[in-house]
Fold this sequence. Notes:
Layout: E1 4-7, E2 10-15, E3 17-20, E4 26-27, E5 30-31, H1 33-46, E6 50-52, H2 61-71, E7 80-85, H3 96-110, E8 115-123, H4 127-133, H5 136-145, E9 149-156, H6 163-167, E10 174-178, H7 190-199, E11 204-207, H8 220-229, H9 234-243, E12 248-253, H10 258-267, H11 276-290, H12 313-326, H13 330-338, H14 353-357, H15 364-380
Parallel strand pairs: 3-6, 3-12, 6-7, 7-8, 8-9, 9-10, 10-11, 11-12
Antiparallel strand pairs: 1-2, 4-5
Helix pairs in contact: 1-2, 1-10, 8-11, 12-13, 12-15
Amino acid sequence: MISKRQNGRLPEQLSRFGFGVMRLPMRGEDIDLEQTQQMIDAAMAAGVNYYDTAYVYYNGLSEQTLAKTLVERYPRHSFYLADKLPGWKLAKDAGPQQMLELLDKELEYLHTDYLDFFLIHSVDHQGWPSLLKKGVLDFLQQLRAGGKVRHIGFSYHDTAEYLPTVLADFAWEFVQLQLNYYDWDGQQNARGQYQAAVAAGLPVIVMEPVRGGMLAELPAAAAAALRAATDATPAALALRWAASLDNVAVVLSGVSNIEQMRENIATFSPLIPLDARERQAVDEIMAIISAIPIVPCTGCKYCVDDCPKKIGIPAAIEALNEYRRFGHDDALNNYWRLLKPDHAPDRCIECGECVKYCPQKLAIPEHMWELSELIKKRRQA
């Protein structure tokens, strides 16, 4: 059975592995409900009790899918639901009432009358001051006095330096951070973010432990370093690395098929912290990966909705990264084979809307141009 743990201000015994319902299996352009239900059933049978969704995942369909596959099929007390308020979806003149209406819509989609964990979604130094002006603290105080949410936190996408400012603004009960060994001492300074949460006494929910899948498929030299140290798969190593941090309550994984679900369940049944050889392997892997110029996209898809050309930006960057990582054309060919022509990266008009919503602050138009040029050269060859 899945390892469980009670952590800090959260009295619940939470499964160390949580199902992040944001990268669901697809059948054409629709969510594959049959396979998603198999994944839910496998998770519940193993003791997974933490399920994380958001209003913006699949434009509300993630919540509705979770209602059909989990909420309607299992006793409500047998699992914990986490959902999020997307502040950027609020109108300029919105206030606490509009926030409450959005929460009520989420509850309606989920077919439940309360959330166990409620987060302000994707907090950063641009959006948080705007939410403060709109009365988000009054809204949260109202929630704390009512019965619609049990625990209040936020997911964070900004610098370690700004995090204490947000932590000081409210009596938060937990925080969701992007923690993985790639970002630990990198541009994201995940170590500093984690230390700020520890100093504030807040348990951490981990998102992107496998860095949007990047750490699940290592370059050949890095994979060899891993095989020399352990039988663990790259994904399992990354998940266990995050879960080995003392202040981590739950590690979320955006599972995309039943095979991944089974592997993740096995990884946490029980959870075994990394040993010294595996930690040394992580250091060797990072030395190899750090020498390769990879675009640090997590595939969150926040950039997609407001793209006027509806370019599938995460898939484009994934293809670019695979080409950079492995140096062969398979990634480009596979990407082009599945691409709809009117969604191609050469449709980018460099408007910058994608950059505005990117948690990683990537120069997305530049990467669209680079990928377009690579594809053009190979199709002309």
